[in-house]
Amino acid sequence: MALPDRNDLLAREIAQAAAAFIVRNSNRQSLITVLRADVSPDSANATIYVSVLPEDQEKPAIDFLKRSRADFRDWIKDEVRLRRLPTFDFKIDIGEKNRQVVQPIKE
């Protein structure tokens, strides 16, 4: 089994920190779940992928996350040791939505 590279480890730490930030700062009108984070090879950009339930709250949730990027950036400075602080973006994980359509949740 191959060891994860530095970007994979960094992406996991950013995803965990983003989840903690969202729990502390969201208004809880929707369930925002951090699914993963991707970090560019030069660590200049990081995209955090989330899912939102109920789906009709996706736009307000993404708007909240995008408004909170500066606060998240300040908060993550204390939470994760980074050589270079990336620029953050939040997006809905379309792949997860497609997976749910193909593989519906059993009741």
Molecular structure report:
It is a single chain. This protein is an alpha+beta fold and 107 residues long. Helix content is 47%, strand content 22%. It contains four helices and three strands. The protein has a three-stranded mixed sheet with strand order 1-2-3. β1 (31-39) and β2 form a beta hairpin. α1 packs across α3. It is globular. The mean pLDDT is 88.
| Secondary structure category | alpha+beta
Please compute the radius of gyration using only Cα atoms: 14 Å
Q: What is the average per-residue confidence, as pLDDT, rounded to a whole number?
A: 88
List the quaternary state of the chains. single chain
What structural keywords apply?
single chain; three-stranded mixed sheet; 3 strands; 107 residues; 4 helices; alpha+beta
